[in-house]
Amino acid sequence: MSIAANIVIAVIALLHLWFLILEMFLWTKPAGRRAFGTTAEFAEQSKALAANQGLYNGFLVAGLVWGLCLGSTGFYVKVFFLGCVLVAGIFGGLTASRKILWIQALPAAIGLVLLHLP
Q: Is the pLDDT reported for residue 1 higher than 90?
């Protein structure tokens, strides 16, 4: 398993940890509203949904970190959780913002490719 794959997976985990923080704790704050382009009113009305979404990002972080901690025996754990990130990124890119394709789906796809290289 390549070091490059593990680095990409670690970066993806850190990105999703940041998404968790934004969605669970900063959603109604200026930084959260700026990151997602929301108004104070919308952020207040949707904060429970955003926190739930943040929790799911936390599960992705936990899975990716678990796979990294397993080392070479974590190959399938990494593949599974990168697949989850990829699917979520594609869905978000098609339904919410194209930017999600580049921020979430592309890194996951790169990680999957790197995992499968010798």
A: no
User: Mean pLDDT score of the chain, rounded to an integer?
Assistant: 96
Three-state secondary structure call for residue 29: coil
* Phi/psi-derived region of residue 71, left when phi > 0, alpha when psi is between -120 and 50, beta in every other case: left
What would the DSSP string read from start to end of 15-28?
HHHHHHHHHHTSTT
- Tell me the per-residue pLDDT of 72-89, one tens digit each, with 9 for 90 and over: 899 999 999 999 999 999
Specify the DSSP class assigned to residue 104. Answer: I
Average pLDDT over residues 21-38: 96
Size of the chain in residues: 118
For residues 81 and 96, the answer to whether their CB atoms sit within 8 Å is no
Residue 82 to residue 89: CA distance in whole angstroms = 10
DSSP state of 70: T
